[in-house]
Amino acid sequence: MVRTRVAPSPTGDPHVGTAYMALFSYCFAKQHGGEFLLRIEDTDLARSTKASEQTILDSLKWLGLQWDEGPDVGGPKGAYRQSERLPIYKAHTQSLLDNGHAFHCFCTSERLDEMRKAQMAGGQTARYDGFCSQLTAEDVAAQISAGTPFVVRMKVPASGVCTIQDRLRGPIEIDYAQIDMQVLQKTDGFPTYHLAVVVDDHLMEITHIIRGEEWINSAPKHQLLYEYFGWPMPELIHMPLLRNPDKSKLSKRKNPTSIRFYKDMGYMPEAVLNYLGMLGWSLPSGEEKFSLEEMVAHFDIDRISMGAPVFDVEKLKWLNGRWLRETLDDEALADRLSDWAFNRDKLMQIIPLIKERVEVFSDVAPLAGFLLEGLPLIEAEQFAKLKTEPGVAIKVLQFSLWHLEQASDWRSEVLQAGLKQLAETMDVKIRDFLAPLFIAISGRSVAPPLFDSMVVLGPDLTRARVRHALNTLGGVSKKQAKKLEAEYRQLGSAL
Ligand code: GLU
């Protein structure tokens, strides 16, 4: 039985890269009559949030990817949220310690820093030097009873070559000398990704691991752990990473990367999924438009294209146009539009913002239309007419964007309080601060209440509009961004 999984960490927006991995994992499993699982990797307590987990689940569901087992639907191999599996990781770490495959490490961060600096100065790879692996059992017991904080690290052979097999790339050789004695259990007792992923993939009987190529370097550590536990190794399939048009790793600075953005912009889930599929694979006939069912029916993992897949929003838009025209009749399109935003719920969000400002129904569309648009048409001259100085306007937009990218609570009063505080810390009058934001969000200088509008638009469209406004003003160069970032960070300590 083929079993695959997608294992997102709930630390941010639902990323198109996650959907890409989920899609290929899904197709491979389904093509073999197998099962596809969803596991939440939330062992990074400080960065994981429930809200992020929920939007990831919602976004993947919106795309139409159904998992057979997962935190919301349960299943025989649960729990499917790593934070609920801590005793399992503890027991497995203990068994590695008992069998001499792992050791307690009491090194302070100062010692580790010095060690790394010295290694790098000598042209070596920064890597744990094994100091604590030499401690006697008595030393270890004494340190533990003295309450010295510790991590648990895995042992790695001092020499030799590790060969991992990747289905798409063949054998990959990496010298053990390049592989770090990875921390498996952190000082807080939580497992690291490396331990948890191996234990879970084994216990959840995953047969094929499909994930991004950025994990290739971790594969030797994982393979060693499989060997230490005496478990069979699942097959590895590392997918090429999605890229920006300039071939750099797909990043939200250059492309909207949140699945929710595409939903809020009014893309069809079928088209987004089709596009993600097209980035790594093609139908034998060469037809670019295909459904999930067609992809499953014809899927061949060995035909995954190894070229760097460029995520091109224009191409996605073109494909969406085909889906819209070729698969939706007028009735179906009307239903979709009403599901998307032309519905009563949306109106009930909008009405309180505009009621005081309209006299007849036909006043509504001109006033509230921007809440149903993608990116409003704006021009640099609109900013030039403001009292806010051009340099200040750029700074306000960029700092607000950074602030909004961090904001996880998207309630109007919270947004207002946060941005007001930012204005005060920047020492910019609130009127001058809000004016460029009004244009960015609504396309006009007079509009319904700003923060409530941001709530109606949601985080992704709001951020996209601020980014779009910055671009309209000529964009922020790398050098300028660095300077602004330093300034923003300094403000951060005052915020
Ligand atoms: N939690 C990891 C991530 O967020 C999963 C990597 C893997 O698939 O092994 O990408």
Record the strand order, biggest sheet: 3-4-7
Number of DSSP helical runs:
20
- Give the biggest beta sheet: 3 strands, antiparallel
CATH architecture tag of the largest domain:
3-Layer(aba) Sandwich
Count all strands and give the number: 9
Question: What's the level 1 CATH class of the largest domain?
Answer: Alpha Beta
Write the layout of secondary structure elements.
Layout: E1 3-6, H1 16-31, E2 35-38, H2 50-63, H3 86-98, E3 102-105, H4 109-121, H5 137-145, E4 151-154, E5 161-166, E6 170-175, E7 183-185, H6 193-203, E8 208-212, H7 219-229, E9 235-239, H8 259-264, H9 269-280, H10 292-298, H11 313-327, H12 330-340, H13 344-354, H14 364-368, H15 380-384, H16 390-406, H17 412-426, H18 430-442, H19 450-472, H20 478-494
Parallel strand pairs: 1-2, 8-9
Antiparallel strand pairs: 3-4, 4-7, 5-6
Helix pairs in contact: 1-10, 6-7, 9-11, 16-17, 16-18, 16-19, 17-19, 18-19
The structure holds glutamic acid.
Task: Outline the structure in words.
The chain is mainly alpha-helical and 495 residues long. The protein has three domains: 3-83 and 243-325, Rossmann fold; 85-233, Glutamyl-tRNA Synthetase, domain 3 (Alpha-Beta Complex), CATH 3.90.800.10; 372-492, Orthogonal Bundle (Arc Repressor Mutant, subunit A). Helix content is 49%, strand content 8%. The chain contains 20 helices and nine strands. The protein has a three-stranded antiparallel beta sheet with strand order 3-4-7. The radius of gyration is 26 Å and the shape is globular. The N and C termini lie far apart (54 Å). The chain binds glutamic acid.
